[in-house]
Amino acid sequence: MSSSLSTKYTPKTWDEYIFETEKMRKAIETIVKEGVIKGHILLLGESGTGKSSFIEIWRKHLINQSKKTGRLIRDVRSVKDYKIDELREIEKLAQLKSSSKNYVVFEEFQYSNVSKTPSFLPTFKRIASQKAFQDKVTVIATSNSFVGFETAIRERFTYVFRFTRELTDYKLPQILDRVMTILNQEYGITDDSANREKTKEWLIEFNVGAMRPILNEIQVFGGIPSINKNSKESRISSMSRLLKSVHVVNDFIKTLTPQERHHLFTGDRKLTADTRKKWNSYVEAIYKIASNSDVSVLDLLDHLVSDKSFNALAQLTFIKLAMEFGRGDPIVNNAFGVLSIHNSLLRAYVLEA
């Protein structure tokens, strides 16, 4: 099964990265030019706003820089459990006689996680500002929230980069350029003034300044709705659009627990309001595609049974989607009768997955 657009187009270089502010961009340009981070970095923001991409791009840059300069750079190691023994091991890196630079990522650096080990923060506060430690070790911490930390902890970070989902005037041109490149590669949409203006209007209406939700929405719709309807260059088969859309839905289904999947596919009211809301938004989006296409529900069902590239969970997703916007149609009901055994097996899969 092909990957989602958000996975396929995860930024791999700084040229593809969406910077929050000009200050952040210039800081990164300076760091890249100097080839080393002087101090520690805090990446602060909610999930899906670019923190993980930032670390991956920097990691690749470090490896390439090491090859060019010959300076040893230890690979980025991650800290998740915040045990004091782990921090003491990191402290020992500053005592090594080697000239290598060490980069350590503190993942989910929230107070609720770190404070579970009472001595962790006092020890980090003590060693983080020591010159010998900074020369040998750079800490890059990712956090959804910095609530609970004392000011002294925050002051240990030389750089504090904030990440948001807000669509700002600064991010809009960057996102527009990136989206136009992806639309051209995926759907053949040309980057002309008319399509660019329609895409810009759609981005402003969608009003999200983070690439992951934007690409998920584009994949569900198979492009930009206003361009899909009017542009010959972007015309793709309805079935192909539906198949691309179900990949996004299937990725969402994979994030659910077996119990949540069971609640969803059996119509159980125990499903959380947030999960139900997301599911309904996907159903509505795919319904719009199907209602404006020449693909019948039976075509869709025939494809899901014959296409071996879709696993059982994806097939069940297809059936559930068809049931959502095909309910009440006698032909559709009969088709589901024929597939009842297949559907039962899929339900069992959901509970066992």
Question: Would you kindly provide a written description of the structure presented here, covering whatever features stand out?
Answer:
This protein has 353 residues and is an alpha/beta fold. It folds into 3 domains: 21-163, P-loop containing nucleotide triphosphate hydrolases (Rossmann fold, 3-Layer(aba) Sandwich), CATH 3.40.50; 165-234, no CATH class; 237-353. Helix content is 59%, strand content 7%. It has 19 helices and 5 strands. It has helices at residues 5-8, 22-34, 51-69, 84-93, 111-114, 120-128, 131-136, 151-154, 171-187, 193-206, 211-221, 225-230, 238-254, 258-266, 273-291, 297-306, 312-326, 330-338, 340-352; strands spanning 41-45, 77-79, 102-106, 137-143, 159-163. The two termini are 17 Å apart. The model is unreliable at 230-236 and 325-353 (pLDDT under 50).
End-to-end Cα distance? 17 Å
What is the helix/strand order? HHEHEHEHHHEHEHHHHHHHHHHH
Uncertain stretches of 5 or more adjacent residues: 230-236, 325-353
Rounded average pLDDT: 75
Helix content: 55-70%
* Class based on secondary structure composition and strand pairing: alpha/beta
User: What is the class of the largest domain in the CATH system?
Assistant: Alpha Beta
Tally of extended strands?
Answer: 5
At the fourth level of CATH, the homologous superfamily of the largest domain is P-loop containing nucleotide triphosphate hydrolases
Reading side by side through the largest sheet, how are the strands ordered?
2-3-4-1-5
Gyration radius (Cα, Å) is 24 Å
Please count the helical segments.
Answer: 19
Main pleated-sheet profile: 5 strands, parallel
Spatial shape: globular
Into which percentage range does the β-strand content fall? 5-15%
CATH 2nd-level architecture of the largest domain = 3-Layer(aba) Sandwich
- CATH fold naming of the largest domain: Rossmann fold
How many structural domains in the coordinates?
3
